[in-house]
Amino acid sequence: MIPSATSGPVVLLGCGRLGSAIVEGWLKTGAVAPSDLIILTPSEKPVAEQARALGARVNPPLEALEAARVLVLAVKPAMWRAALGPLIVHLGRRTQLVSVMAGVPAADITAASGRPAARVMPTTAVAQARGVAAVWSSEPQARETAHALFSPVADVVDLDAEAQVDAATAVAGSAPAFIYAFVQALADAGQGEGLSAEAASRLARGALRSAGAGVETDETLDALIARIASPGGTTRAGLDAMSDTGELERAATSAVTAAVRRARSL
Ligand SMILES: NC(=O)c1ccc[n+]([C@@H]2O[C@H](COP(=O)([O-])OP(=O)(O)OC[C@H]3O[C@@H](n4cnc5c(N)ncnc54)[C@H](OP(=O)(O)O)[C@@H]3O)[C@@H](O)[C@H]2O)c1
């Protein structure tokens, strides 16, 4: 087993939507000092430029990777081999790999790189240090490294088996988009009941913020629902209408099943 490094730069490979969110969160919380951060990106990214201004290195000569304690893979699943391949000879023996990619098994990354790998499935709210991140690795050191990088920016949920990462991708990584889509549908329904587009959108977004405040407490989702839905009231009527048809459960199940299927086909 290759011993892991406990100090040295953190390399981020890919600074797209998720990579940028991760850098934002690290800068915001100080989880990774800018002087410890190396960003590899083919095109200029505003967040990478912000990090550079604070002391991060963007696309330095590849010899800089030799001292890296960890490389975070944040490119699209289809291009990780092409992106990582040329870097492997430059990585130090102790560099660990952390992948935030959907659908790429840790064993493939370890086989390609000869290094331990952890998988992390975060939401983009890591940018505001309010994300959630599922973590899995068979290697305790790699799992620990993933915790160190993501605990400051997310609620880290340890998974028992790698097979669960695909479900976590659906229920965490993708789910904010499912919830936004539902909120949009609520706003559209509000317009159908006579609200202006602007009022419906502001009210629905406000409802999402209010719901978010609820889950910041320790109360269960059932308790949060019960707090709003008094017997015989308007909320109860709406909830009953949703559960009578089973459409909500069907929509949630189809979205999660389709996302899991897609993750498995990547
Ligand atoms: N977005 C999410 O909410 C989310 C959530 C959980 C997991 N993920 C995972 O995160 C990964 C990235 O997703 P994304 O949404 O951030 O995609 P994205 O916005 O397309 O970002 C991918 C980035 O990789 C960069 N890239 C391509 N080739 C590269 C190379 N050779 N070296 C360095 N960087 C390279 C691209 O650079 P250019 O822009 O210059 O082309 C792009 O900015 C995916 O594997 C996805 O499964 C995403």
Task: Describe the overall structure.
The chain is α/β, with parallel strands linked by helices and 266 residues long. The protein is built from ten helices and eight strands. It has helices spanning 17-29, 46-53, 80-84, 106-113, 140-150, 164-192, 197-215, 221-228, 234-245, 247-265; strands spanning 10-13, 37-40, 57-58, 70-73, 96-99, 117-122, 131-136, 154-158. The protein has an eight-stranded mixed beta sheet, with helices on both faces. 34% of the residues are buried. NADP nicotinamide-adenine-dinucleotide phosphate binds at residues 13-19, 40-43, 74-77, 79, 83, 100-102, 121-122, 124, 173.
- Sum up the overall morphology in one term: elongated
Quaternary: single chain
Overall number of domains: 2
Main beta sheet: strand number and arrangement?
8 strands, mixed
Number of strands: 8
Secondary-structure element pattern, one letter each = EHEHEEHEHEEHEHHHHH
